[in-house]
Amino acid sequence: MVTPESAVNVKNLLNALNGKHGILGCILVARDGSVVSTSLPAEIDIGTIGALSATLFSNNDVSIQRMNRGNLIQMTLLTDQGILHFYEAANHYLVVLTAKGQRINLEGLIRSVEEQGKSLETIIA
User: Where is the Roadblock/LAMTOR2 domain (predicted)?
Assistant: First the structure.
């Protein structure tokens, strides 16, 4: 759970990812789809992204479990508008969006998100 005291630390972690590996911004979403924190540009509809991100991750997690492949912990979606990378952290979803048209080092992106995701877990656990 994000407390008022930890909210600043969460925001700083999200901001630290911006610009790395073509990252446009990040959003931390609760399992119910509510937005906890964001570093996305103001023109992006964070409410819709938050709600749909929670639904996407949850539905794919159920599918993965039905395939007997364990629990979903991360997923990456490549679109014509950029990459969305999802990471589960302490019952929240960290969603990272890249900027359109960027050449992305996917391994570097995933590694950076994992590192910040683990840091988030210590703050919000």
Answer: 10-98
